[in-house]
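Hi team, as promised in this morning's meeting, here are the two structures we talked about. I've kept the exact order from the run log so nobody has to guess. The first one is mostly here for context; it's the second one we should focus on when we meet again. Sequence first, then the predicted structure tokens.
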Amino acid sequence: MSSALEFPLPTLGLDFGSRYVKLVYDPGNGRLIRLRLDSLEFYRHYLSRGNGGVTLNWPKLGLVTPGALVATGYGKNLLKSHFPTITEIRANFLGACHQTSHRHFILLEMGGQDTKVLYIKNNRVFDFLTNDRCAAGTGRYLENMARFLKMPLRQFGAAWQDPVDISQTCAIFGETELIGHLLEGTPLTRLAAGVNASVARRALALVRRYSCQDLLFVGGVAKNRAVRHFLRTWADYQVMTPPYPQFNGALGCYLEARKISGLG
């Protein structure tokens, strides 16, 4: 008869992001499954409310009920009475340390609604900064600007040549500035490059506080090639981006769940 250790229960890490809900799921064989769902759709279709609590509809998600689950993100409080939760700082720290062999690096996490910077040395968080007061340096801002310019997000994120100077630092009035450039006949690619450059400039204002050239870039914005380009060329950072940058926080939760269940 096989022991429980040979066939462990499924383990799940869940990150309730402002734009997407990310799941890292191990069905018990060590092969990770990654799921990304629109946050609003997730709330509407996969959460069940009753008896003063909230549960997840595992069959509808196509998953077996996990034996261990840890959550983080904006919506983690919905589940905190049912499952362990950890801060986004810890989740991103655990995920980052797992995905790099570096012991001294800066972690830049740019998501849909905020930016976090962690200064990590000897596998410890020495300091961190967050910028959640303005949307102009976030993934949602980039999505909105790409939609405004009617450019596919992939094409928008590849624009870095000859960026127009974007002086407006407010997401609300950013479109007004772009309209002014459009009336002057500025090409769309230059406008997209300018927006990408402005986002990278905001990130650098936080990152430059720490003396380290190794930069691990995660979050949805890490998929933007132009922002990565500006981070490398403007400050000579050694920019590292893992294969699934949006799942870094969910991965950290998964690792914490393994630790709680005695598998980590």
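And here is the second protein, the one for discussion:
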Amino acid sequence: MSRTPRLTLLKLGGSLITDKTGVESVRQDALDRLAREIARALPKLRGGLLIGHGAGSFGHVAARKHGVGKGPLDARGLRGAARTQDRAAALHRIVIAALLRAGAPTFSLAPSSFLTSRSGKPRTVGLDALCGALDRGMLPVIYGDVVQDEAWGASICSTENLFLALAPRLQRKGYRIQRALWLGETEGIYDSEGRTLSRLRRKDLRGLGAAVGGSRGTDVTGGMAHRLDAAGRLAARDIPSLICDGRVRGRLGRALAGKDVPGTHVVP
């Protein structure tokens, strides 16, 4: 490539766009607002944007019900994996519809169509469709999905693991990943007194995941602890992260514009 394409990673947390204490409960007002903020920011964004979203009260509830993501699956478990995949895809279509209504040039990508795993960890990844969408100025959108697994038959690939699998491969392709934005329903990472930690270095994260804990509501992939681990791993690749509260109107738009917003910065 004659130039280095810039890229921002954005995760819309499942707890932000759905009510994870319920079953298949979409926070439609929040989702529509976030979609509008994204669409307004795109023309001014320096570089491309890759969106990933969680499975929320769709995929997580189904995965827990059918025992998907814990190990090898028998025939009954594989049928449960198919149902889980269907529910995750159902939420994805709702997210895509919101972005299209807002005017964003979305390009939907099911991770199960370009990625396989082994024992729950991404193994093979195809980049052609994703890079093609980015290079044409489109907005690729991925999500936590059920994928083929060489050892288990099928397993869950979270958005965090998708970003971790894609980041080094995109960097080798010549993309410069400027940062990752993680939007949820907290101001960031809190200290023992409930105050937001504004800045964390990778070495500060050791042992912090256990203290942070999981997610409110149903979650089979680890919640905030999983997100913090992913942010630390991205920091090891010189990719900074911002974990912030997506419930605040305008915050996503300001973050995409590069403005200072409250939250926790995880830096290399």
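Starting points for discussion:
The chain has one domain: 6-267.
The longest strand covers residues 176-184.
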